[in-house]
Amino acid sequence: MTFARRCLSALLALSLTTPLSTPALAQREADPLAAVDPFIGTGGEGHTFPGAVAPFGMVQLSPDTDTTCVIRDCYSHAAGYRYEDPTMQGFSHTHFSGAGHSDLGDFLLMPAIGTVDAVKLEPGDAKQPGSGYRSRFSHRNEQATPGYYSVQLDDAHVRAELTAGARVGVHRYTFRSGDEAHLILDLRSSLYNYPGKTLWSSIRLRPDGTITGSRQTRGWAPDRKLFFAMRFSRPLTNHAFVSTETDVTYKGFQGPGRGSDRLAERSGRALVGRLDFGKLDKPLEVTVAISSVDEDGAVANLKAESGGFDAVRNATTGAWKQALGVLDVDGDAAMRKNVMTALYHSLIAPSVTSDVDGRWRGPDNQVHRAEGYTQRSTFSLWDTFRAEHPLLTLVQPAEVNSEIIRSLIASQQVSPDGILPVWQFQGRETWTMIGYHAVPVIADAYLKGIRGFDATQALAAMIKSATYAPYGGLADLPVLHYIPIDHEPEAASKTVEYAYDDWTIAQMARAMGRDDVATWFDARSGYWRNTFDPKTGFVRARKADGSFREPFDPTAINYGSDYTEGNAWQYSWFVPQDQAALFDAMGGDQAAVTKLDQMFDYDNSKLDYSHAEDIAGLIGQYIHGNEPSHHVAYLYDHAGQPWRTQYRLTQIVNSQFKPTPDGLAGNDDLGQMSAWLVFTALGFYPVTPGSLEYAIGRPFVRRAALDLPNGKRFTIVADNFGQSRPYIGAVMLNGRPLERSYLTHAEIMAGGELRFAMSAEPNYKWATDKHARPFSASVKR
Predict the structure, then answer these.
(1) Which of 107, 251, 371, 745 has its CB 3.0 to 4.6 Å from that of 692, i.e. a possible disulfide?
(2) Is the pLDDT at 258 greater than 80, yes or no?
(3) Residue 404 pLDDT exceeds 70
(4) Nearest residue to 755 (alpha-carbon basis) of 694, 712, 714
């Protein structure tokens, strides 16, 4: 009996005694929050934050350990908090989760004690305790769980607790008995600093004791406006609004206090407030709401979630239990923590951006109103179209995914350029990264049956984005059928990414009966061929005269060169719509496998990538810390050697993920790195969003069950699971042998059971036939 038949016989025997529908896992965790560690990724290059946030919440209330960096030095502190830092500067209300760029860190609060004259209004030097309002702390006295964070501030002698709702953040500060309590409100603090970043800011004390204000900045996103409203559980005894620049505007009245600082309102470019509360007999609670629209919007958001610390925390805890409870995982403790934390990180963005009344600020910097849905922003689409958004279609209700699509379309409708978001936050566009990757997000959702948005309007927005001549060299595409490097930087990457995006337009257009559009974009999806060099076997940058740019080094990585955050080794595999055709161009399946092996096994000892911030997690020329490599391990499936995919995935997961602060190999990029792990741990991955297929890898947990948005459950079981058995011997779907290396979306959504027989040896016969491989447009089944 062959090895494959032995595994299949074992699976068939198990199916006679094991129910196909598993009602509960053997070790079901009653509280999914217990397996989540928000500190994962806060060290190294993960760029995650440990603070409090609700699922997709507008407010990300988190500690900032240092905001004194300048421009590119801010990279290591892109999320405000870095685990290695010994001091804490304060707690601000907006953060990115795992971004490769820094910004936000709005409206920083920090408790202080002592007499009024002793309170310092500058953060001070981290190396000189007592030089400012920052405080030392210890990780021993720090705690984080979804929706909650706490820390003991050693110098301030204050226990700080944070929680957050959909549009509010709530602080709770416990001061020592007898200490005079103060808060510092620093409107100067930011996570992306350079001279003149703050264009204007304001702060005022309203008659009812509410403090409101605003900040207008030119950072990563130009001319960004954000407003806040703040209320306290105890009344102010005094306050000072101070400008640390000379060119200021004063408004309001002069009251008693420290001279001209005692104002009801102040505006300027460098404002800091001192808020005094006297001696307190109970913890001080501070509720802060934000709005990108105006102060009244912030006040309305504040009123909508005004229940206090415990009420907000309980509501958010319930929301996280529901969101994380869709996935049950039974596996090794470290892997379970990695996977559940990855799911948590995948549910932080896209974040809510509209106020409770539906108003939101768009890319035109004007105020609009979302009617009947919640507008969302924080779209890192070059990263998240790959796995983050496909994951959301499996773990979030259809209404949430529909709102995401409606938000993309609404943004396009009011964009001055008339195109879909590229990299957007709080409604403002940054134009960071390449491609028009809102397109595959929309197409994938539509093809999966998600509705609730205007498909005709969506298709028009997709076409407009793909044909907007001023963007990314698109003016040359209809003429040359590629992007020329002497006209546009990173041309090789743009050519292949545009080709994939165009393929997804064709898929959606055909499903809508628009064959004219489908034919047009099907042709464009083949333009990747015009940048592939058969002599070297690499995707390369071409000049407008048709010649490839010389000299050529496939290992060279330089920003603004032929490729985007990568080189020829990574980008030569990006033809997800037709990997079979790419392999044919490379010389066939075995040639592709040989080249894949060369990529993973490449000797980097003589290469220096220290100048490239995003190049992390190297395995040869495979770079797991950045997105262009994320699908590559699965490509052995497309070449008919899925056992090699299983081997490479084991290599990647074992070396790139740990349940520790430095446990992410690179930036989490708004959930993409995490979504990769969730899919991979379950045993499959969306190599080609829009194809309605998932390439099978191998599971990294014993059992998992996914509660789907349609009410059904899809269960994954790995028999004989263990580190010594990293290969798939055989696979069964709902009790029947599965002889192909892909699943369909319909099969998952139907519920049921996917069962793997794990083995110490590869199965060289499973899923090798061309028709047993994942989707390629040129292969007819």
Answers:
(1) 745
(2) no
(3) yes
(4) 714
Amino acid 520: pLDDT: 98
Q: How many CB atoms lie within 10 A of CB 14?
A: 15
**What's residue 246's pLDDT?**
62
d(CA 436, CA 742): 27
Q: What span, in angstroms and rounded, lies between the C-alpha atoms of 55 and 349?
A: 8
pLDDT score, position 76: 84
Cβ within 8 Å of residue 272, ≥6 positions away = 121, 184, 185, 186, 187, 188, 242, 244
Strands 90-92 and 238-243: unpaired
Its sign, for the CA torsion 486, 492, 495, 497, is: negative
Integer Cα distance of 77 and 82 in angstroms: 6
Binned at pLDDT 50, 70 and 90, residue 509 comes out as very high
What's the confidence (pLDDT) of residue 781?
Answer: 87
Q: How many CA atoms lie within 13 A of 96 on its CB side?
A: 31
pLDDT in tens, 536-562: 999 999 999 999 999 999 999 987 789
- Six-digit token string for 534: 């058969």
Task: Give the range among 115-119, 157-161, 196-200, 337-341 with minimum mean pLDDT.
Answer: 196-200
Q: Are the beta carbons of 674 and 343 closer than 8 angstroms?
A: yes
Range of weakest confidence among 57-61, 243-247, 672-676, 750-754: 243-247
Residue 489, preceding bond cis, omega within 30 degrees? no
Rounded to the nearest 10°, the torsion over CA 267, 253, 207, 305 is 10
Residue 628 to residue 386: CA distance in whole angstroms: 9
pLDDT at 194: 67
pLDDT digits (tens, 9 = 90+) for 338-392: 999 999 999 999 999 999 999 999 999 999 999 999 999 999 999 999 999 999 9
Q: How far apart are CA 325 and CA 29, in angstroms?
A: 9
Residue position matching structure tokens 């808020």: 275
Q: Rounded to whole angstroms, how far apart are CA atoms 138 and 29? A: 30
Distances (CA, A) of 383 to 215, 248, 386, 440: 29, 41, 6, 12
Share above pLDDT 90 across residues of the chain, in percent, rounded to a whole number: 88
- Cβ-contact 172, 271 below 8 angstroms: no
**Each residue of 640-661: b (16+ CB within 10 Å) or e?**
bbbbbbbbbbbbbbeebbbbbb
Cβ atoms 83, 45 nearer than 8 A: no
Of the candidates 481, 505, 509, 507, which has an alpha carbon nearest to the alpha carbon of residue 494?
481
**pLDDT tens string 422-466:** 999 999 999 999 999 999 999 999 999 999 999 999 999 999 999
The ranges assigned to domains in the chain are 32-61+71-319
Say how far apart CA 578 and CA 586 lie, in whole Å: 13
The CA-based angle 643-648-650, given to 5 degrees, is 95
Q: Tokens at residue 419, please?
A: 């195109």
Instruction: Calculate the CA 585 to chain-centre distance.
Output: 34
| Cβ atoms of 752 and 733 closer than 8 Å | yes
For domain 32-61+71-319, the CATH class is mainly beta
Q: Which two tokens stand for residue 659?
A: 């349940």
Q: What is the side-by-side strand order in the sheet with 379-380? A: 379-380, 423-425, 428-429
DSSP E strand stretches across 6-129: 52-53, 60-64, 87-88, 90-92, 108-113
> Are β-strands 367-369 and 423-425 bridged in parallel, bridged antiparallel, or unpaired?
unpaired
d(CA 554, CA 621): 10
Side chain identity at 752, as an amino acid letter? G
List the alpha helices (DSSP H) in 241-346: 295-304, 309-324, 333-346
Q: Which residues pair with 423 in a beta bridge?
A: 380
- Whole-number mean pLDDT of the chain? 93
| pTM reported for the whole predicted model | 0.95
